[in-house]
Amino acid sequence: MISRVELVITEASIDDRKVIDKGLTEYNQSKVPFGNYADISRVIKLGDEIIAGIIADISPWNILEIETLWVSEHYRQRGYAKALMDEVERLAKSMGSHLSQLDTFDFQAKSFYDELGYKVFGILEDHPKGHMRYYMSKKL
């Protein structure tokens, strides 16, 4: 057992973070091998202006992960968010993904994701204080 006197806890540097990430990645791969990562983010433009976009990727375990979905306030309620979701889900399926996951807050778009067939698998209360964060998934 390590004596308390021998332990030194310090702020992690960028290089320290890389060691930590590498260690966990190696462990994870020993349990479930990774596939290929793919960034499938998309935008909708009007001329040079981005009016909507989605940041999404296929994780190394072939899961569609929706990080951010945004539509400029002036262009909301026109089907752009659904078009972006449909596109990344189509791409993910074509690449062999079987599951999609995302999170949203109570003041964002939970009902929109409900309509697309996403189901809540977890809720974090008071995140931020007075609000709910919903973790959702959908079989593709």
Notes on the structure:
The chain is an alpha+beta fold and 140 residues long. It has one domain (38-139): 3-Layer(aba) Sandwich (Aminopeptidase). 28% of the residues lie in helices and 34% in strands. The chain has 3 helices and 7 strands. The protein has helices at 14-31, 80-94, 110-115, and strands at residues 38-39, 42-46, 49-58, 64-71, 99-105, 119-125, 132-139. Strands 1, 2, 3, 4, 5, 6 and 7 form a 7-stranded mixed β-sheet that branches. Strand 4 (64-71), helix 2 (80-94) and strand 5 form a beta-alpha-beta unit. The chain is globular. The model has no long low-confidence stretch (mean pLDDT 95).
Write the layout of secondary structure elements.
Elements: H1 14-31, E1 38-39, E2 42-46, E3 49-58, E4 64-71, H2 80-94, E5 99-105, H3 110-115, E6 119-125, E7 132-139
Q: Do you know the CATH architecture? A: 3-Layer(aba) Sandwich
Output the CATH homologous superfamily.
Gcn5-related N-acetyltransferase (GNAT)
Outline type: globular
Distance between the termini: 48 Å
In the CATH scheme, the class would be Alpha Beta
Helix/strand-derived class? alpha+beta
> What's the count of strands?
7
What is the alpha-carbon Rg in Å?
A: 19 Å
Contiguous helical run count: 3
Low-pLDDT parts are none
Here the CATH topology equals Aminopeptidase
Main beta sheet: strand number and arrangement?
A: 7 strands, mixed
Order of helices and strands: HEEEEHEHEE
Portion in beta strands: 25-35%
> Which whole number gives the mean pLDDT?
95
Question: Can you give the helix content as a percent range?
Answer: 25-40%
Counted up, domains total 1
